[in-house]
Amino acid sequence: MEMIRTLSRRRTSCRNFTDEVLPKEKLTELINNSVWVPSGSNNQPWRFVVITDKAKIKAYSDAAKKMWLENLPTSPHMQQYEKTFRDPTANIFYNASSIIIIYGNTESYWYIYDCSMVAGNLHLLAEEEELGCCWIGEAHNIFADPIVKKELGVPENYALVAPLIIGHPAGKKSVTESSNKRKPFKIIFA
Ligand SMILES: Cc1cc2nc3c(=O)[nH]c(=O)nc-3n(C[C@H](O)[C@H](O)[C@H](O)COP(=O)(O)O)c2cc1C
């Protein structure tokens, strides 16, 4: 059992995966462990969609890229990724074997915070298992789309919070601290 301190310092977002598939049991176990977080009013407002079908993952990547290109003028934060969206070979999910999408119940005021804590936990749990994980903001359009939500069986009152990819990392991950340095920040003891 590794210390949280070690895991959080070692974790980096993974963007390179093997083809090895994660069994449903492992994905279920990760999700079951991830929900042991605090939540506003203890509402626990999360629900999950898991996608493991390779063809579906590719189709959602293509649909997300197309959707971003159509909406780039009104999505200035995504304009820096235009080259990726125009590249027919680019997969925004980096060929990961699984996507875990966290949706939150919008009737619960704190749902974005609660579900984001679950997402953070999933990153650490994946690291503990030597799996790779990455939050894919580039999938926020497609998995928030009402038609896609319906397709995935997500009720209207649940909103997208976190699409995460998860799988076996290609290449050995360093077991030392993350090479991704933290920027300086202020701590005010007031
Ligand atoms: C809300 C959010 C959205 C992100 N979206 C993407 C994304 O679309 N594609 C990607 O490759 N990484 C994405 N990331 C991962 C960040 O790029 C990564 O966390 C950051 O560069 C810091 O690196 P590290 O996670 O390795 O410490 C996202 C992370 C967060 C928290």
From TrEMBL:
Pfam families given for it? Nitroreductase
For this protein, the record's SUPFAM superfamilies field holds:
FMN-dependent nitroreductase-like (SSF55469)
InterPro entries in UniProt? Nitroreductase, Nitroreductase-like, Nitroreductase/BluB
Q: Which domain of life is it from?
A: Bacteria
- Domain Nitroreductase: from-to ranges: 9-168
Q: Name one GO molecular function term.
A: oxidoreductase activity
Q: What is this protein called?
A: Nitroreductase
